[in-house]
């Protein structure tokens, strides 16, 4: 996979696939490119898809300075600049959706449209408790516990599937691989916990789709609903039924692809 230096002082690992209007995909907490599962390749059937590893994870440099939602948004904007893509559709999942919000506010000229997959604008008490619990194994560098608690991102149906362990195995390289990457993940959880755009979301001018699953425990549906309500003209889609988890792009790739391409079909770069 190629790496490219960006103006924020790091080299980012990225992939491109497909043709058409550019679609930049921003990964969530602790994840690298493979955690997109089949979603990226499916979206590449209609768009030029750019995926990348956030700083300090996967094949990207950590660099210097603090990791925050704002600094990650600056990295993401710098990646588009380095790739000479002046304007793109932007899809962010979880932490990536928070990054997409900040990007749409700071560099609106870059964001043709925004898909916020499993999002929130400000942690409430329930969400803070869940994210704090998921953060703790990384603080103690306990990868076994980190993987066990990551089950909260999936549906009861998947967790009880007899082949769940075998299904998860190909994605293990997408998780932190060493102590340095576990520390970066702690910093990402901290960024999640203090993310707060709720009072600024009215400034987003890009056409926006907010997608969440009814089984999502990490970014509960009421949190995504609040984001959609705060962004002028945003479309809100609640996915129901088995597999409608925080990781529904992995569990329900067909449905998520259909919703995303349906929305993007009405947008232009």
Would you mind describing this structure in some detail?
- 39% of the residues lie in helices and 16% in strands.
- The model has no long low-confidence stretch (mean pLDDT 96).
- Helix 3 (95-106) links the parallel strand 5 and strand 6 (111-117).
- It starts with a strand and ends in a 5-residue tail after the last helix.
- By secondary structure, the chain is an alpha/beta fold.
- The chain has eleven helices and eight strands.
- It has helices at residues 39-43, 69-82, 95-106, 125-139, 143-149, 156-159, 164-168, 179-194, 221-230, 248-251, 253-264; strands at 3-5, 11-17, 22-26, 48-52, 88-93, 111-117, 208-213, 235-239.
- The chain is globular.
Question: Can you summarize this structure?
Answer:
The protein has 269 residues and is α/β, with parallel strands linked by helices. The protein contains 11 helices and 8 strands.
> What is the beta-strand fraction?
15-25%
Ranges where pLDDT stays below 50 over 5 or more residues in a row are none
CATH class categorisation = Alpha Beta
What is the tally of helical segments? 11
List the helices and strands and how they pair.
Elements lengths: L2 E3 L5 E7 L4 E5 L12 H5 L4 E5 L16 H14 L5 E6 L1 H12 L4 E7 L7 H15 L3 H7 L6 H4 L4 H5 L10 H16 L13 E6 L7 H10 L4 E5 L8 H4 L1 H12 L5
Parallel strand pairs: 3-4, 3-5, 5-6, 6-7, 7-8
Antiparallel strand pairs: 1-2, 2-4
Helix pairs in contact: 2-3, 4-5, 4-8
Keywords summarizing the entry:
269 residues, alpha/beta, Rossmann fold, eight-stranded mixed β-sheet, 11 helices
């Amino acid at each position: 996979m190629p790496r490219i230096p960006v103006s924020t002082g790091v080299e980012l690992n990225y992939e491109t696939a497909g043709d058409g209007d550019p679609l930049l995909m921003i990964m969530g907490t602790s994840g690298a490119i493979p955690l997109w599962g089949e979603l990226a390749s499916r979206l590449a059937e209609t768009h030029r898809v750019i995926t990348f590893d956030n700083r300090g994870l996967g094949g990207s440099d950590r660099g210097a300075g603090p990791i925050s939602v704002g600094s990650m948004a600056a990295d993401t904007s710098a990646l588009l600049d380095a790739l000479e893509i002046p304007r793109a559709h932007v899809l962010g999942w979880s932490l990536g959706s928070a990054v997409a919000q900040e990007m749409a506010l700071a560099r609106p000229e870059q964001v043709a449209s925004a898909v916020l997959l499993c999002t929130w604008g400000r942690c409430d008490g329930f969400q803070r408790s869940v994210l704090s619990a998921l953060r703790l194994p990384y603080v103690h560098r306990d990868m076994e516990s980190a993987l066990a608690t990551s089950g909260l991102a999936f549906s009861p149906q998947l967790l009880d599937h007899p082949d769940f362990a075998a299904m998860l195995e190909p994605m293990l390289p997408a998780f932190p691989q060493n102590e340095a990457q576990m520390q970066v993940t702690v910093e990402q959880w901290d960024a999640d916990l203090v993310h707060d755009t709720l009072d600024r979301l009215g400034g987003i001018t890009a056409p926006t789709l907010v997608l969440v699953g009814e089984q999502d425990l990490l970014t509960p549906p009421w949190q995504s609903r609040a984001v959609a309500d705060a962004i002028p003209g945003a479309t809100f889609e609640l996915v129901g039924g088995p597999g409608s988890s925080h990781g529904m792009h992995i569990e329900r790739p067909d449905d998520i692809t259909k919703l995303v391409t349906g929305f993007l079909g009405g947008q232009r770069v």
